[in-house]
Amino acid sequence: MKKLVNRSNVREVFFQALSNSAWANYAFLVAAEISGKGTLDELRMLSSQHGVGLIQISTTQDSESAILIQADERAEVDWTAADRLSVENSDAENIFRQVRVYHQAGELNIEFWKN
Q: Is the pTM of this model over 0.85?
């Protein structure tokens, strides 16, 4: 999630979103503001090559947030990337643990997901 995506940072933030989402079935770059001539066109081109979608989020009204570019679904999760991320990041490890519990037992820890 980024506050601002513009022509000077578009590639950096896009590829950051791409690298951080290797373990996910869907990858989105989420931004509060997208500005600059050609920024959205660049994001469309990068998205068509890499399958990362774009969500513009409203910081004032949830109903004004929108998916501007739909992400492509990845049929297979990159478990090597997921394992590496969980070793390097305890927050990611906790998320993966909760997903595993839900997948295996169907139990959803509402309090965990509220935080």
A: no
